[in-house]
Amino acid sequence: MDPELIGDCVHCGFCLPACPTYVLWGEEMDSPRGRIHLMKQHVEGTPLTPEMAGHFDACLGCMACVPACPSGVRYDRLIEQTRAEVERTQVRRPEDRALRALIFQLFPYPRRLRAMRLPLRLSAGLRRRIAPRLERVNPSLAAMADLAPPAPARIRLPRRVTARGRRRATVGMLTGCVQGEFFPQVNAATARVLAMEGCEVVIPPSQGCCGALSLHSGRREQAERFARRTIATFERAGVDTVVVNAAGCGSTMKEYADLLDGEWAQRALAIRTVDLAEFLVALGPVAERHPLPLTVAYHDACHLAHAQGIRSEPRALLTAVPGLRLKEIAESSICCGSAGTYNLLQPEAARDLGNRKAERVLATGADLLVSANPGCTMQIASAVRRLGAGPIAVAHTAQVLDASLRGLTGVP
User: Fold this and answer.
1) Which H or E run includes 394?
2) What's the rounded Cα separation, in Å, for the pair 22 and 59?
3) 276 and 349 in contact (C-beta within 8 Å)?
4) How far apart are CA 288 and CA 103, in angstroms?
5) Which ranges of 32-105 would DSSP assign to H, the alpha helix?
6) Dist CA 81 CA 60 (whole Å)
7) Cβ contacts of residue 157 below 8 Å, gap of 6+?
8) What is the strand order of the sheet 241-244 is part of?
9) Domain 3-89, CATH
10) What is the CATH number of domain 289-406?
11) pTM for the whole thing?
């Protein structure tokens, strides 16, 4: 924990209404200001107790406090450092250790995620009947069963997608872990949209995890290993710009130079990471947009809006589609409760935040919920089902653009 970064906090309280856990519970130690106070106590000699670790674990890492802070406190870096310290010093309960081992030996590995396709073929109704029983045994396993989307059809992406018309750029595309295995249709739509806008798209095979889940949970060594592998993968592909369609991945990859040391930090700087919406707005449109008569509610993924500062770009892309009506979601800056692995490690708080977000989404009366992060998509869809409102149609910004560019009558 960096004492200088801790000292930047003047305890003004502007972060309090931006913090989801403070909004839920109103507890000072579950606000950014309170957690920074605990960090200060620790660097001044107070041992890191299980109670203190519990307050750090309860943080979603949503970064809503960072843009809200008038003093420019880098809470994002502080909580990453603190979580690494928690993981290094705390001996967790056996069941907690087992759950974390399961998560971090499964989700960052696409091939292992692929093995979950068979269980996911269970009908949604059956999985929802199982979830209440699991709730009594292990709330985290119940959350995992309830969150999982239906098993998608396998989509094999080519290694290279040729630009339509005049080639305007050559870019690499990150396929991701959860995105690639649970939402391959989003990756396929992303590649088509980029190609229709004049981009040659390079998709290296056998991509691994970018390190986002590990970094945000204090597993720094694992995150560094994944980061080095990701850099080497795109170096071999011969691209210096990588387009990312998952908010958490993009946020982490943009910070590779700070995560890594020496030569690897320099190699990280040589590869530019851009979010899909950010890239398309800067590139400018050339492909014709066809009408889509839809009412869309756009959800701001935390690691896109707060960590990367990308808010207007997705909205600009959506409102440029003829016939599409964009609806804003109340409390848009409050996290939905997904937050990487948070909805598995802190299922009760995540459920409360998910229900809160789902109520705001449903209040818009939109036909379609659009998000730029797979975790958010699963979290909000699960909460809508839990509220008994029936399934809600969900899509990524790329899928909406893809449908409009191809002249489809709706978003598949």
Assistant:
1) strand 393-396
2) 10
3) no
4) 43
5) 32-43, 50-57, 65-68, 75-89, 94-104
6) 14
7) 175, 184, 187, 188, 191, 203
8) 160-161, 199-202, 169-173, 241-244, 272-275
9) 1.10.1060.10
10) 3.40.50.11810
11) 0.91
CA distance 273 to 373: 16
Q: Which 8-state DSSP code applies to residue 287?
A: S
d(CA 233, CA 393): 34
DSSP class per residue in 339-393: TTTHHHHSHHHHHHHHHHHHHHHHHTT-SEEEES-HHHHHHHHHHHHHTTS---E
Domain boundaries, the chain: 3-89, 94-147, 160-282, 289-406
Q: Which residues pair with 169 in a beta bridge?
A: 199
Q: Answer whether 175's CB lies under 8 Å from 155's CB.
A: no
How would you write the pLDDT of the chain (412 residues) with one tens digit per residue?
A: 888 999 999 999 999 999 999 999 999 999 999 999 999 999 999 999 999 999 999 999 999 999 999 999 999 999 999 999 999 998 889 988 898 998 898 888 888 888 776 665 555 555 566 666 666 666 777 777 777 777 777 888 999 999 999 999 999 999 999 899 889 999 999 999 999 999 999 999 989 899 999 998 989 999 999 999 999 999 999 999 999 999 999 999 999 999 999 999 999 999 999 999 999 999 999 999 999 999 999 999 999 999 999 999 999 999 999 999 999 999 999 999 999 899 999 999 999 999 999 999 999 999 999 999 999 999 999 899 888 877 779 999 999 999 999 999 889 8
71, 78, 11, 106: which is closest to 344 by C-alpha?
106
Query: Is 289-406 the same fold as 3-89?
Result: no
- Distance separating alpha carbons of residues 368 and 259, to the nearest angstrom: 37
The residue among 1, 141, 156 whose CA lies nearest residue 81 is 1
Q: What angle do CA 88, 89, 93 make, to 5 degrees?
A: 100
Class of domain 160-282: alpha beta
Whole-angstrom Cα distance, residue 12 to residue 256?
Answer: 31
CB 46 within 8 A of CB 40: no
DSSP string, 168-229: -EEEEE---SHHHHH-HHHHHHHHHHHHHTTEEEE--SS----SHHHHTTT-HHHHHHHHHH
In sequence order, what DSSP letters do the residues of 68-88 get, joined into one string? H-TT---HHHHHHHHHHHHHH
What backbone torsions phi and psi does residue 35 show, to the nearest 5 degrees?
-65, -35
User: In angstroms, how far apart are the furthest CA atoms of the chain?
Assistant: 63
